[in-house]
């Protein structure tokens, strides 16, 4: 399994394309710049099978409808944010001056619980990691040693919790119980910024001091 990180849009939100030897791929968090996503897919000769969303904040969903329509593929989102795609107040796009309110069509499929999933021949484990938002999830590719965490954990930081539905205590529990329990050499692929590892964040992330739990 291979992956590519594509920083997109004004906020440089990381989209990820995960693909296997058979050229099947999953598109995760297509925030903007659908042409840039399509260019990479065409260049690699990939066959998109689905769009997966770590959560439904506006900077992660801007290209969802255009990509979904272009490839005729379903969109997967956690059920806790079922109404967020079409609601600018929930997805946060109405909170910022100069940003067009985002109204995206409803997801086709909803994650309802943690566990193993296989979509388009690509398997992963879904971890529920709420705190940044109620339906935040992380996609763990165990055999390949990486996890895509959205805005839950960053290199030297954690997700903000001042947006609708955010809870700092819940976020820290998610990180501590779901992420830091993974092997130290697991690559952490965040929604913004550079790639890090579980071991790096366990030792050096100032927000993960045990006294905060």
UniProtKB/TrEMBL annotation:
* Domain of life of the organism encoding this protein: Bacteria
* Chain ranges of the Metallo-beta-lactamase domain: 12-192
Leader sequence range is none
Against InterPro entries, the record matches this protein to: MBL_Glyoxalase_II, Metallo-B-lactamas, RibonucZ/Hydroxyglut_hydro
State one molecular function term (GO). Answer: hydrolase activity
Ordered alphabetically, the record's keywords are:
Hydrolase, Metal-binding, Zinc
Question: Which cofactor(s) does the record list?
Answer: Zn(2+)
List the PANTHER family: HYDROXYACYLGLUTATHIONE HYDROLASE GLOC (PTHR46233)
Name of this protein: Metallo-beta-lactamase domain-containing protein
Give the organism the record lists.
Domibacillus epiphyticus
């Amino acid at each position: 399994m291979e992956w590519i990180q594509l920083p997109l849009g004004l906020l440089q939100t990381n989209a990820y394309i995960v693909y296997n030897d058979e050229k099947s791929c999953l598109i995760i968090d297509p925030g903007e710049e659908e042409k840039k996503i399509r260019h990479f897919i065409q260049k690699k000769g990939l066959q998109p099978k689905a769009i997966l969303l770590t959560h439904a904040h506006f900077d992660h969903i801007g290209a969802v409808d255009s990509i979904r329509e272009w490839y005729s593929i379903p969109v997967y989102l956690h059920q806790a944010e079922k109404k967020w795609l079409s609601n600018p107040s929930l997805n946060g796009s109405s909170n910022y001056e100069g940003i067009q309110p985002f109204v995206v069509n409803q997801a086709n499929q909803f994650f309802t619980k943690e566990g193993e999933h296989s979509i388009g021949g690509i398997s992963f484990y879904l971890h529920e990691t709420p705190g940044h938002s109620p339906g935040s999830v992380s996609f763990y590719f165990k055999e390949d040693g990486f996890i895509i965490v959205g805005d839950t954990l960053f290199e030297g930081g954690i997700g903000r919790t001042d947006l609708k539905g955010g809870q700092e205590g819940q976020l820290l529990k998610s990180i501590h119980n779901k992420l830091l329990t993974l092997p130290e050499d697991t690559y952490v692929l965040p929604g913004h910024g550079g790639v890090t590892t579980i071991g790096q964040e366990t030792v050096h992330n100032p927000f993960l001091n045990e006294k905060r739990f």
